[in-house]
């Protein structure tokens, strides 16, 4: 930390004539009292504004409350009071369980009052009829951790959750059941298993709804269905009705669609609140004006504000201008909107196997490049290891072998850093 030195005035540099006025003690006391009063008023005003706009104080744990959408006041309400959602996305199934509390604590410390997470069907039912809600898939524990930190939760159970995941988060075995299955429609096979999955999920998390004393305030119906070629309203109505049946008629449901005149009407469904998704380069005023074409009253909710973007095979790393992100977020907040910040899924290894991917116990460790070796050492967080470990290496066809020798993987206590098995050809 730099220290600034102020040189003393020399006799030559000092002014010849100067006057020093000393205020009377009574006047100083009066000034200090006025200053203290002004500071106190400013602080109280700020506290009142913060409570009104974000309502960071959550009801005591286990105390039932009511979250609602107030169309008259264009606001979300919690226990009858206006609340602004300031949310960040954290996907429990993509984050090592040992880091859940740490990441949630960071979110709370950053001033967020809500956590948004998808629920991946393929992770919870990897094989037909075998549901897994333990360990890394222990959604209930993740939600309870968020609640212990006074964080509200937005749940997005799909069934489809996004193109960045294999089959959009749908389990592979659906294709085995019926190779001609029509996903995300009222296809008999698809809807049978989708209903079973959602029913099983809701049975496990229903007690964590806010009206039951839990943190879950909103549940999303499908995901960006307006971008789907199907645009099947019957399918959306079916999911809406199933969620109301399992979660209660007063559950706050919403849809999310990308900005665009075509996507919003196709993805919305009667009786479900529409939210919008867009990137940092969007014109915020234009986005909200478009949303108001289909939802004249009610709070504005940006359920996905992209602060980053995922990387794709053979393409440069995506960068989003931070100044632009901050400017867009500022416009969203000045409009009185609620917002959920999405960093962008950088873990492209689940989708694009672009030449060297290492998985340890299902977690993507990153890439090792066949053109350079591969690397001798990959860093592995200690929390990923178990008593019995499964290491999977996915390589380009023919890229792993050099000189006809089979690949060998060693586990070392003291790694050799900054090296590869083979040097890049000159």
Task: Walk me through the structure.
Residues 75-341 form the Glycoside hydrolase 35 catalytic domain. GO terms for molecular function: hydrolase activity, hydrolyzing O-glycosyl compounds. One of its GO terms (biological process) is carbohydrate metabolic process. Keywords: Glycoprotein, Glycosidase, Hydrolase, Signal. By secondary structure, this protein is of the alpha/beta class. The protein is 28% helix and 16% strand. It is built from ten helices and 14 strands. The protein has helices at 25-54, 100-109, 121-124, 139-148, 173-177, 188-205, 233-247, 263-267, 284-292, 322-334; strands at residues 67-70, 75-78, 81-83, 86-89, 114-118, 152-156, 216-220, 253-258, 273-279, 301-306, 338-342, 357-360, 363-367, 391-394. Helix 10 links the parallel strand 10 and strand 11. Helix 6 (188-205) runs parallel beside helix 7 (233-247). The relative contact order is 0.09. Mean pLDDT is 79; it is low at 1-23, 43-57, 344-355 and 420-426.
């Amino acid at each position: 930390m730099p220290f600034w030195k102020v040189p003393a005035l020399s006799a030559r540099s000092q002014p010849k004539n100067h006057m020093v006025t000393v205020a009377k003690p009574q006047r100083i006391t009066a000034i200090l009292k006025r200053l203290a009063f002004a500071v106190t008023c400013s602080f109280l005003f700020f506290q009142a504004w913060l409570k009104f706009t974000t309502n960071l104080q959550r009801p005591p744990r286990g105390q039932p409350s009511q979250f609602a959408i107030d169309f008259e006041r264009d606001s979300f309400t919690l226990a009858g009071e206006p609340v602004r959602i300031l949310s960040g996305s954290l996907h429990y199934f993509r984050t090592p369980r040992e880091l859940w509390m740490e990441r949630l604590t960071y979110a709370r410390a950053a001033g967020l009052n809500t956590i948004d997470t998808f629920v991946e069907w393929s992770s919870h039912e990897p094989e037909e009829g075998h549901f897994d809600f333990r360990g890394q898939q222990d959604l209930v524990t993740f939600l309870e951790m968020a609640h212990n930190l006074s964080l509200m939760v937005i749940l997005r159970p799909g069934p489809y959750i996004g193109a960045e995941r294999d089959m959009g988060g749908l389990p592979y075995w659906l294709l085995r059941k019926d190779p001609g299955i029509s996903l995300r429609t009222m296809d008999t096979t698809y809807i049978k298993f989708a209903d079973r999955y959602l029913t099983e999920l809701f049975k496990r998390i229903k007690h964590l709804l806010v009206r039951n004393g839990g943190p879950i305030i909103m549940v999303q119906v499908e995901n960006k269905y307006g971008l789907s070629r199907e645009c099947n309203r019957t399918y959306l109505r079916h999911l809406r009705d199933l969620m109301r049946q399992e979660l209660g008629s007063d559950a706050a449901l919403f849809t999310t669609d990308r900005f665009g005149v075509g996507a919003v009407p196709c993805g919305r469904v009667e009786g479900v609140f529409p939210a919008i998704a867009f990137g940092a380069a969007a014109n915020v005023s234009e986005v909200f004006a478009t949303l108001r074409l289909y939802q004249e009253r009610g709070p504005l909710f940006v359920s996905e504000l992209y602060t980053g973007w995922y990387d794709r095979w053979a393409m440069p790393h995506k960068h989003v201008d931070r100044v632009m992100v901050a400017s867009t977020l500022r416009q969203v907040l000045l409009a009185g909107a609620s917002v959920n910040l999405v960093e962008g899924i950088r873990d492209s290894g689940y989708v694009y196997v672009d030449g060297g991917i290492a998985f340890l116990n299902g977690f993507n460790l990153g890439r090792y490049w066949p053109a350079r070796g591969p690397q001798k050492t990959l860093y592995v967080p200690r929390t990923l290891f178990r008593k019995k470990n499964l290491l999977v290496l996915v390589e380009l066809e023919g890229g792993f072998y050099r000189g006809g020798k089979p690949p060998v993987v060693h586990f070392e206590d003291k790694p050799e850093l900054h090296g590869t098995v083979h040097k890049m050809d000159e």
